[in-house]
């Protein structure tokens, strides 16, 4: 790690898609060192290598947000090597695109698996890294959410993906909790919607690129002291709750 590095960033689910683009963008900024999170060790190594070959400050870290053991191991590694975390980006998530075909036990399993990754995983990852974020002079947390989880915008969408959308609505409440809890301490905690980007999450059917989806998350990760907190936004501005 370069001696000039001043910000340590952890991005979950960063071996592909929007997470990878966030990692690429932030690691290209002066003073940012990115921990590229991945459930699969080899995929994380391969993704990090692509950025390392460009001379970027990136290293892989194994982290499965649905596993308490994995979270404990990851926090120990970050504690041992850095002693703090400046930016946490909760990007890992899933979308079962055929979720509306499920019924009975399969439907229960779909709700369980989606919330375990998208909602509980983000909440428990944040809680696990709070001590390390507390050791930073400028803590930043970004939750990757979705406009489709906006209750105010519900009438603007057809009836689809109820499991995924409800997991993101719940995620927004978790964001509000942490933003409120740490506002007085100067933390910046926000949610970003990347837009409908073509990634493995949606079988690459999105109309936008992962690069464009990373832009607002990177902005929120780099907020200064006068930056916002407790907001839900995309590249065009604030999204109604």
Automatic annotation (TrEMBL):
Record key words, sorted: NADP, Oxidoreductase
NADP is among the record's keywords: yes
Single Gene Ontology MF annotation: oxidoreductase activity, acting on the CH-OH group of donors, NAD or NADP as acceptor
Keyword NADP on entry: yes
Pfam families from the UniProt entry: adh_short
Alphabetized InterPro entries for the sequence: CBR1-like, NAD(P)-bd_dom_sf, SDR_fam
Similarity field: Belongs to the short-chain dehydrogenases/reductases (SDR) family.
Name the UniProt record assigns to this protein: Short-chain dehydrogenase/reductase ATR10
Source species: Lachnellula suecica
Lineage of producing organism: Eukaryota, Fungi, Dikarya, Ascomycota, Pezizomycotina
């Amino acid at each position: 790690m370069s001696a000039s590095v001043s910000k340590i960033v952890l991005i979950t689910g960063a071996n592909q898609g929007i997470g990878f683009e966030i990692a690429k963008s932030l690691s290209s900024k002066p003073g940012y060192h990115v921990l590229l999170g991945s459930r699969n060790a080899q995929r994380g190594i391969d993704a990090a290598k692509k950025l390392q070959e460009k001379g970027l400050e990136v290293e892989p870290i194994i982290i499965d947000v649905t596993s308490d053991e994995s979270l404990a191991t990851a926090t120990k590694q970050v504690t041992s090597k850095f002693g703090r975390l400046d930016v946490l980006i909760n990007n890992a998530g899933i979308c079962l695109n055929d979720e509306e075909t499920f019924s009975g036990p399969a439907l229960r399993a779909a709700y369980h698996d989606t919330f375990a990754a998208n909602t509980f995983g983000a909440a428990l990852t944040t809680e696990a890294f709070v001590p390390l974020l507390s050791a930073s002079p400028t803590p930043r947390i970004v939750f990757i959410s979705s406009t489709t989880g906006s209750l105010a915008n519900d009438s603007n969408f057809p009836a689809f993906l109820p499991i995924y959308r409800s997991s993101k609505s719940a995620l927004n409440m978790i964001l509000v909790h942490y933003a409120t809890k740490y506002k007085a301490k100067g933390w910046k905690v926000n949610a970003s919607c990347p837009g409908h980007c073509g990634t493995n999450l949606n079988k690459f059917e999105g109309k936008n690129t992962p690069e464009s989806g990373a832009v607002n998350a990177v902005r929120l990760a780099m907020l200064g002291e006068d930056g916002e907190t407790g907001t839900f936004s995309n590249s065009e501005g604030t999204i109604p709750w």
